[in-house]
Amino acid sequence: MRNSGDQEEVCILEAIRTANMHRDELVESLVDNSVLIIAAATARRGLTVREISTVTAIPLATCYKVVEKMSTLGLLAETGKVRTSTRGKASVYTASMRSFAVDLTSGSIDMNITWKNGQIMNINREVCMSVPQSEAPAGSEASLGMMAK
Predict the structure, then answer these.
(1) How would you class 10 by CB atoms within 10 Å of its CB: exposed for 0-12, middle for 13-18, buried for 19 or more?
(2) How far is 67 from 58, CA to CA, in rounded Å?
(3) CA–CA separation, 140 vs 85, rounded Å?
(4) With 0-12 CB in 10 A as exposed, 13-18 as middle and 19+ as buried, what is 50?
(5) Which domains occur in the chain, in start order?
(6) What is 29-60 written as a DSSP string?
(7) pLDDT digits (tens, 9 = 90+) for 58-113
(8) Three-state DSSP state, 79
(9) pTM across the whole model
């Protein structure tokens, strides 16, 4: 049986709490193509893993693995169970995030996630360590000087 709207909100809130505990892993997971496809497929309505596999053309075994990973990280919320014609009951999953944006302009990865309940999570991951001016490669000042002229 699918959950009511209030029960779904509680499930999504619990998923967001889980995501807060796995902030570092979210950055890596959200650039995985399968994760993005499943998040998009479950953005508007809850689906079983079999339905996700059918809609996305991701093989069923892979779909189970990715859905489990996404649930563990809080990117998907299990919102209930439905009866299936083949195996009895199956879990229904929905994406817990509404949208996310990535900004790379500062030399780091800045990710802003908007959850379905309106909360916003900002994650910053430094990619490169800045090089102090005294350790700049030889000749770099000369080439900069030529460019300025």
Answers:
(1) middle
(2) 11
(3) 69
(4) middle
(5) 5-98 (1.10.10.10)
(6) HTT-HHHHHHHHHTSSS-B-HHHHHHHH---H
(7) 999 999 999 999 999 999 999 888 887 776 888 999 999 999 899 988 888 889 99
(8) strand
(9) 0.74
